[in-house]
Amino acid sequence: MMAAVMALSNVSASSSYQLIEECDATHKSLYNFYAAVMIIIFIVALPLNASVMHLFIFKLKFWKSNTNNVFLFNLVLADILLLFCLPIKAHNFIMGERRSANEVVCKAMLFMLFLNRGASIAFLTVTSIDRYFNVVHPGRKNLLRALKKSPHISALIWLLLLPLTIPTMLKNFDCCNSHKSDAKDDTLIKGVVDSMREVVFFTQILIPFVILVYCTVHIINRLRKKTVGDRTKLKRAVFLVTSVMVVFSVCFLPCTVARVVLLVVRVQELSEVAQDKAAVAFDGLMVLSYMDCLLDPLVYCFCSTKFKALYVKNYFPFLSRGGAEPLDSSSGAPSQPPRNAVL
């Protein structure tokens, strides 16, 4: 995808700046490529997430579980809701639009995209924190461990995310017009709205990333210090948090860096060509961030040997080896009884 973005250097940008301000796709072939990527993500990720959700509801009965299945169910739910936005987004790109010309559709899309991507990041982070307490402080009581058995903390996360989506739906955020140099729009209110929007965008990614780094470092240190006991479970816990770090680094950090570059280019009022390239690159890296919907089930569901065995047994029975039930190795805590203790 980065190679495709770099191809912009060979494209004339004589009228690109005006078009991109009007939310038109300035490079049709490149935006068609973005649309194709989103369609592929949708086709592959939707049945994967739907099958995982089916197991959570009908096989595991996640609401009765004593583990973090409630968090993981909400993670899958957020990814599925986000996936339903991708065909609309792809259609806009194919039609030569960076967003829908219909204001209602545009605002609804922005609301869904930011709410559900924020929920996905939040539940990834909460699950990593839960893993951190299980491994680093296995005997310590904590509020998260007490609340994770009920849906209340999950509902609270969704409710807290709602007000954070409001600034992202103002002033055509999807067209990268924050801090645009325009005298007629240069007002205090616009500056405050632009700043709030950028704060929401960056904190939604950077704060969880810092938390993930902290949890990963401490879990790895715990593994190094452990000389006796079941090191296999600790190694799997390290694999889990490290995998989340990789997902974050691949899906979310590139678009964050692209957003910084775009803001710098706009604030410094560089050439129209530079602003055009920065905006189109940001769009492409936002498309890359949707890969999170495809990677989340692989990282947080299939890394558990017990869940993987259940998945294979239900959807690919011809691959099932049978025999004893595998141990739950998704955390550093001792394995639970077979009933509803998969993850």
UniProtKB/TrEMBL annotation:
Query: Which locations, inside or outside the cell, does it occupy?
Result: Membrane
- Show the SUPFAM superfamilies listed in the entry: Family A G protein-coupled receptor-like (SSF81321)
Residue ranges spanning the membrane: these are 33-58, 70-90, 110-133, 153-170, 199-217, 238-265
Q: Which residues form the G-protein coupled receptors family 1 profile domain?
A: 48-300
Q: Which residues form the signal peptide?
A: none
Is Transmembrane included in the keywords of this UniProt record? Answer: yes
How does the protein's chain sit in the membrane according to the entry? Multi-pass membrane protein
Pull one GO CC term from this UniProt entry. Answer: membrane
- Keyword Thylakoid applies: no
What are the protein's GO molecular function terms? G protein-coupled receptor activity
Keywords, comma-separated and alphabetical: G-protein coupled receptor, Membrane, Receptor, Transducer, Transmembrane, Transmembrane helix
**Which family does the UniProt entry place this protein in?**
Belongs to the G-protein coupled receptor 1 family.
> What name does UniProt use for this protein?
G protein-coupled receptor 31
Q: Which organism is it from?
A: Gouania willdenowi
Q: What is the lineage of its organism?
A: Eukaryota, Metazoa, Chordata, Craniata, Vertebrata
